[in-house]
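Support case: adenosine monophosphate complex. Customer-provided input:
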Amino acid sequence: MPGGHTQTLRPFLWRASKLYPDTEVVSRNHDGMSRQTYAEYEERTAQLANALDEHGIEQGDRVGTFCWNTDRHFEVYFAAPSMGAQLHTINPLLPDEHIRYIVDDANDEVIFVDPSLAEKIAGAAEGAEEFEGVDLIVMDDSPVEAIDGPVYEEFVAGHDTDYDWPELPSEQPAGMCYTSGTTGKPKGVEYTQSMLWSHTMMSQSPQGIPMEDDDVVMPVVPMFHVNAWGMPFTATAGGAKQVFPGPSPDADDLARLIEEEGVTITAGVPTVWLGLMEYCEDNEVDLSTLDQVIVGGSAAPESMIRWFDDRGVEVLHAWGMTEMSPIGSVAHLKSDLEDEDYQTQLDKRSKQGIMVPGLEFKVIDEDGNRIAWDGEEFGELYVRGPSVTKEYFKRPEANEEDFEDGWLKTGDVVSVDPDGYIKIVDRAKDVIKSGGEWISSVELENAIMAHEDVSEATVIGVPHEKWQERPVAFVVPTEGADREGLDDEILELLDEEYPKWWLPDAVEYIEEVPKTATGKFSKKDLREQYTGSVELHEGSAPEEAAPESDD
Ligand code: AMP
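Agent response - structure generated as follows:
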């Protein structure tokens, strides 16, 4: 048994099931709450592995998931990698075309599908050759209309509760997640056993996000987004109770789960916490068990850190990337800052933080020099370490652009203060992050420019209180074009191809897109010219476009 001398995930589950057999794994599901212990969970993963074996899944095969944060999803998390297959979490919020591309690119053999997402995947799969030979399995105990395939509980039922887990090399691919690029289709990141093992151990270090046997851990960040920041693995390694908040939880669900299950650590993007904060202002919610809220994916506002501080809850602001499994830095307060005044400490805690042990970084300015750590100079952040990918899956041109001498170029522009705290000051990559998920501005631009009355178009992200960023389109109509109604036509055009939450909040007409010296669109100039002056488009209120919800 497990893993021998290599770095694999399997020993984490072995430890939890042997040391903490009675600790619970709890999940909000479509039909209410479900509960199991680590001992039962281990048996279920063995049953699932046996079922996948019988289904013909072999080492190296990819097992897709199209699911929310549930206990069944968590069963695939250990079963697939530990049998030598690869867990491939697919983001159900992506446009259908991206989903087809990803399934084809990854060559998934099977995909486990949450029942609430069955129609979405069936729509993407309809008539698509990318889905040929892919078996869809409904993550439930009863069939759904949209999918003509087996049901999860029948799939695993009756299988042996023991599995002869293989010895796996550290370099065995264990996971996979796609991230949106500036141009072109999403890029696949493969996680080896060793990357996920390293990430778990780094997270468990005191300056990571450690989770212990008296913790109750609730990942709100989706399990399709970099393995919910690796929390299910870290929590298992520490023997913590786990709480999965289920399909599209709202603030009411989260508050109830925190209270009823006694959650001590939870994590998600700022949008989620803004919703919970608002809910707590209007309702009596007992947050007394909560020790830490991990805020990442987008910058944590200082007011959020204060709000939780006032209620005795520590916000840990974290930065990371899909390519990094994902944790990079966490804004822990260094011990020599403990005597500083509250505002000085808040200034540090609002930054993206200090690198977790095990990673290295450098910051390179426009002239190719390393910047000084003076909190003033800035440049692009490069990182490397055992949990950082060395390449994209089958994308040599992206590798050329995003990696250099073994370093990952993050596309984040940062300064570093003399204490080593990293602060993101800009983003070099041309993408928009709304509610924690990416929108490709370049794709929207190309789609808009396909309209015959548009001569130039560019899309930028403008700051938004709830969603952090929302897209706004700037359009130069062709000479003589009728501008009346053109904005609505553009939105309709985009609506056909993209999910609602991708649609720009406003379409603004301009006479010319500002250009750089080399004639490229200068989004920097446009942002400086227009940010804050935009009237948001009524019809595409971001409330309807919540990326966390089934759109
Ligand atoms: P993803 O690969 O989807 O997890 O996105 C990674 C990117 O999200 C980073 O390169 C940053 O641009 C952004 N990001 C992640 N965490 C933070 C944070 N705490 N503050 C600001 N931006 C962040």
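The pocket of adenosine monophosphate is lined by residues 179, 226, 296-299, 317-322, 326, 352, 410-412, 424, 427, 433, 438 (CB under 6 Å).

Case will auto-close in a few days if no follow-up is received.
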